[in-house]
Design goal:
Largest sheet: 2 strands, antiparallel
Low-confidence stretches: none
Number of strands: 4
Shape: elongated
Strand content: 5-15%
Number of domains: 1
Strand order of the largest sheet: 1-2
Helix content: 55-70%
Mean pLDDT: 78
Distance between the termini: 32 Å
Length: 111
């Protein structure tokens, strides 16, 4: 992943990429195995799918919903969370500058 800066400041697109990718990988590492386990348990029990207490025809597909919807839900959450964090950082940097300084570079001059 490449992060870009302009004048020592992190670009919004780079901040979004960093936050959204981190959330997607981190949450995916937790929730994808969980969704897989729930799907395996639903399919292994062979119990019919019920909605409002009544058996639903074609309910076998409903048992696969956690594994089918898991990646979609995680992607939507990553975008939402990324946008909110980047918007907050953008508002913050309007008042106080967020400077990105390389460890091996000289510190920027004080204003």
């Amino acid at each position: 992943m490449e992060l870009r800066t302009v004048g020592g400041r992190l670009k919004a697109s780079s901040a979004f990429k960093l936050v959204a990718t981190g959330y997607l990988v981190g949450a995916g590492a937790i929730f994808i195995p969980l969704f897989t386990l729930v799907t395996v348990m639903l399919v292994a029990t062979g119990a019919p799918a019920r909605v409002n207490g009544e058996v639903v025809e074609g309910g076998e597909l409903l048992n696969l919903m956690p594994i089918l919807l898991g990646p979609i839900i995680l992607a939507m959450q990553a975008v939402t969370f990324g946008v909110l964090v980047v918007f907050g950082l953008w508002l913050f940097q309007k008042r106080w500058p967020l400077l990105i300084v390389a460890e091996d570079a000289a510190p920027p001059p004080k204003a």
